[in-house]
Structures are given as structure tokens and as C-alpha cells.
Amino acid sequence: MNKWELEELIYRCLKEDIGHLDMTTAHLIPERQQSTGKILSKASGIVAGIEISKAVFTLLDSSVSFEIIKNDGEHIEPGDTIALVKGKTAALLSGERLALNFLQRLSGIATKTYSLAEAIKYYKAEIVDTRKTTPGLRELEKYAVRVGGGRNHRFGLYDGIMIKDNHIQAAGGITKAVITLRKKIPHTLKIEVEAENLVQLREALDAGADIIMLDNMSIEDMKTAVEITAGKALLEASGGINESNIIDAARTGVDFISTGAITHSVFSLDISFDIIHLESE
């Protein structure tokens, strides 16, 4: 997401939250009052989105000073100061919730991704995300996956070919779908096929698929799929993979393990914002 797109997103979110006026702050806080606030970690995790939090405050008031203590990708523990924010109290109070929403959400994604990536770091398989993201926040959430040590799958329907079960049904089979697409798409694009069983795996291989997703296959079927494929295509394990079985999935020899859980089912990291110093007007 470039600078202008990010600013547009933040402005839209600020409008959603503040509307025409922050009623509490506007009628309670003196306009010229200055404060210093601290963004504080209340949990262990990985920081992601600190620059976005900074942008929230500085777009509200360009005179706000934002000192980053913990950068994206750094580990944090309860009690760690992530950033210090100094400026008009009104700007700090009006921006704190949105700044925290971004930071907590993205740090939660980065933390979850890091946990899974660490679990399989001794195997060749890599953690990959999906399109199961929050509408409007896909680029930011996929950024957080990278911060946590994962890799991005396609960003949308526009930048990758994936023949899923409904495509197979509508197109008249895997072979027909692969052949049709191969004739029409640029030679630089790879074709991925979703296979629900070993019969579909073999058909996808014979049709010349570049990548095959092993959809909800058992660990034993994954092992067999790796043996059958023998390096002729990349293999992506997906569906029902979590902390309890991810190492078993990685041991099968697949190249990627994709999971929507790292973006659609994470808990936001517990992070707070506290005013720690008030300056005289």
C-alpha cells in the first residue's frame, strides 16, 4: 500500500470514528493543552503496524511527535514501551483508539504467524496466508504476515491463477480447465490446482499444473502426494492445519502450508495507550 492509499484509508477510518466531532474531547480538553502518551505492551508478541499508528496521530495533527521504541518485527514483552507520543492532548485522545486498533490487529497477525513459522523452521515448508482477510485491510494484514515470518499467497483474483473445486465443476474437469487457461494466460503465470484427493492430484500433474493445493488431505495422503509428485510440481497443504498438526504436515515434505487462521481468526495483541505527562498550557 503506497503512502496515498494508506492516508486515504486512515482518513476514512478517522471519519468513521470521529465523524464531525469528538464530542467528549472537544468539550472537555483545552485546545492548547499538551501531553505525552505511552504505547505500552501488555502481552508477549511481535510488533507490526507501528508506522501506521504513527500516521494516525500525525495525520490528525502534523505537530505531534511520535518516537518509535520498538520497530516492526521486534519482540515485545508485557511492560515494554513501544512508542512515545507527544502533542496536543486532544489529538492524542482522538487518535488513540484507531492507532491501537491497527497496531493490535497487525501485531496479533504477526505474532500468530511467527508462532507457526517457528514451529516448522527446521523443515522446508513455509507458512503462507490466504485471501481470508478483513475487507479493505488485505494489504496491511498480508504485510503483518511477512513481518511475522510468513509468505504471501496471491493478493487477489487478479495476480494469480488458482483452479478451485467450483472452477473444476464449472469448467468440466481439471484437465480441461488447465488446458484452457494455459492457452489464454501469459506464459509468466503459474497455474495452481486444488486437489481434494490423490486421484485429482494425479490428474493435475498429468495436466501440467505448476502448483497443487492438497485440500484437507490427511497426513498420510500428503506423504503419498509428495512421493507421487516427486518434485514435478510445488505442493501446498491447506485446510484444518493448526498448532497441533502443523509439524506433522511439514514433515511430509510439502513446500507450503497455507492457513487462513493467521488473518481471520487471530486475537489482537493486548496493547494500551496511557497519558503519562500533562504539560501546563
The rough form would be described as elongated
Average pLDDT rating: 96
Query: CATH homologous superfamily of the largest domain - what is it?
Result: Aldolase class I
Number of DSSP-assigned strands: 12
Brief characterization of the structure:
With 281 residues, the chain is of the alpha/beta class. It has helices at 3-18, 23-28, 50-60, 89-119, 138-147, 165-171, 174-184, 198-207, 219-229, 246-251, 261-264; strands spanning 34-41, 45-46, 65-68, 75-76, 81-88, 126-128, 161-163, 191-195, 211-215, 234-238, 256-258, 271-279.
3D architecture notes:
The radius of gyration is 23 Å and the shape is elongated. The chain is 44% helix and 20% strand. Strand 9, helix 9 and strand 10 (234-238) form a beta-alpha-beta unit. 37% of the residues are buried. The chain has 11 helices and 12 strands. Helix 1 packs across helix 3 (50-60) and helix 4 (89-119) packs across helix 5 (138-147). It has helices at residues 3-18, 23-28, 50-60, 89-119, 138-147, 165-171, 174-184, 198-207, 219-229, 246-251, 261-264, and strands at 34-41, 45-46, 65-68, 75-76, 81-88, 126-128, 161-163, 191-195, 211-215, 234-238, 256-258, 271-279. The protein has 2 domains: 3-111 and 267-279, Aldehyde Oxidoreductase, domain 3, CATH 3.90.1170.20; 117-264, TIM Barrel (Alpha-Beta Barrel). The strands form 3 sheets. The protein has a 6-stranded parallel sheet with strand order 6-11-10-9-8-7. It has 281 residues and is α/β, with parallel strands linked by helices.
